[in-house]
Every structure is written in structure tokens, then in C-alpha cells.
């Protein structure tokens, strides 16, 4: 058994940091040590910011985004086209699309994907809220921007089935060759999707 080299407070900090995605035990130890060395510049302000976030962060009751206000900043932005809703799996996907800045639309966060093997059904996701937003009117297009996985495809098909008969255009993100991608390095599934989604030039 390894000898203990720090007190329980530092060990707890390391264990909590190790639970952050992308940080394993070694990275968590390095991060904790860096924070401790920069106690006044980093650890204190980080502690305050985390406490404030814990007190103020909310889930938007309309779209599922995280913010400090409800409805969130995205939902209350009058410059956005509220008639176009981009459906994403997670808040991180919403943030990624916002960084791209390709479309000034509204969003809807599902909170995951359908996965019967993991026990995730329609009632475990924010699908009912999406259907209510569409049926209440004013939505002309729904862009399903879920990951190109089996679960993502299943979720997309389920949502499409639920909205059949409603006067709303349903589209999906294109799948295929990424910008800067070389054909020789792409997998067969990506190449097949690219050929199926080919467009006129």
C-alpha cells in the first residue's frame, strides 16, 4: 500500500478533480498541485466561482440549456430565429454549434439519446418538451443535430415519428467528409454517408 504524502483535504481535492471528464488520477494530481501552488491567483477565485455557480446555475425550463437565468439567454435573445429549433443531445453540443456560429436559431437539449440497453427511454429525455414547443406553433423547421451513432439515429427516427403530420420541416445535419479530410483516411461508414448525401455543384 502506498504511503500517504498529503492530508485528507488535498486527497479529496484530487479525487474530485479525477471525476472531471478528461482528467485521470495523474492529471488530477498535477491540476491539484498547480492550484495549490497558485492558491491566491487560482484556488481561491476558483472556489468562489464554483460556489457562485452552485448557487445560481439553473436548467432552462424551455430548452434545457444551463444558465443563471430561466428562461436562458439563448431563449430570450430577440435576434434569434425562434421558428428554427436545433435539437442537440447535450449542452456541450449546443456550445459547440454556437462556437461555429453557423446559424442564429433556437435550441432544444434532449439530455441524452434513447438507449434501451441502458434503460434510457423517451420519458428519460426532454422529448415531451420538444413536442410541446412544436405543437404550440411558430416552428417552421426542426434541425436534428444528434451524433451519428446508433443511439443518435434511433433518437432522430423516434422524434421524426412523433412529429409526423405536423406542419414542420424536419432536417438533419449532413454526414460525410469533414472539411480538410482526406478520403484515404476516412472509414467506410463516413464515405457511404458522404456519397448518399452528395449535393449538386
Automatic annotation (TrEMBL):
CDD domains given in the database record: TOPRIM_recR
The keyword Zinc-finger appears for this protein: yes
C4-type zinc finger segments: 60-75
Originating gene: recR
Keyword Calcium: no
Species assigned in the record: Rhizobium mesoamericanum STM3625
Keywords in alphabetical order: DNA damage, DNA recombination, DNA repair, Metal-binding, Zinc, Zinc-finger
Family to which the UniProt record says this protein belongs: Belongs to the RecR family.
This protein's name: Recombination protein RecR
Recorded GO MF terms: DNA binding; zinc ion binding
Annotated TM spans: none
Gene Ontology biological-process entries: DNA recombination; DNA repair
Residues in Toprim domain copies: 83-178
Role of this protein: May play a role in DNA repair. It seems to be involved in an RecBC-independent recombinational process of DNA repair. It may act with RecF and RecO.
Amino acid at each position: 500500500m502506498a504511503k500517504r504524502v498529503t492530508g485528507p483535504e488535498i486527497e479529496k481535492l484530487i479525487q474530485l478533480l479525477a471525476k472531471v471528464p478528461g482528467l485521470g488520477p495523474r492529471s488530477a494530481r498535477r491540476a491539484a498541485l498547480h492550484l495549490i501552488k497558485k492558491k491566491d491567483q487560482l484556488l481561491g477565485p476558483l472556489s468562489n466561482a464554483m460556489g457562485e455557480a452552485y448557487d445560481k446555475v439553473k436548467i432552462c425550463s424551455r430548452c434545457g440549456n444551463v444558465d443563471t437565468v430561466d428562461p436562458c439567454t439563448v431563449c430570450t435573445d430577440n435576434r434569434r430565429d425562434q421558428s428554427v429549433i436545433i435539437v442537440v443531445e447535450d449542452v456541450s453540443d449546443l456550445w459547440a454549434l454556437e462556437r461555429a456560429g453557423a446559424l442564429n436559431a433556437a435550441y432544444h437539449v434532449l439530455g441524452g439519446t434513447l438507449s434501451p440497453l441502458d434503460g434510457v427511454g423517451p420519458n428519460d429525455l426532454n422529448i415531451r418538451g420538444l413536442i410541446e414547443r412544436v405543437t404550440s406553433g411558430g416552428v417552421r423547421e426542426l434541425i436534428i443535430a444528434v451524433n451519428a451513432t446508433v443511439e443518435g439515429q434511433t433518437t432522430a427516427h423516434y422524434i421524426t415519428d412523433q412529429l409526423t403530420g405536423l406542419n414542420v420541416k424536419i432536417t438533419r445535419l449532413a454526414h460525410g467528409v469533414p472539411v480538410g479530410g482526406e478520403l484515404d483516411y476516412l472509414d467506410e461508414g463516413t464515405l457511404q454517408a458522404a456519397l448518399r448525401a452528395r449535393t449538386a455543384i
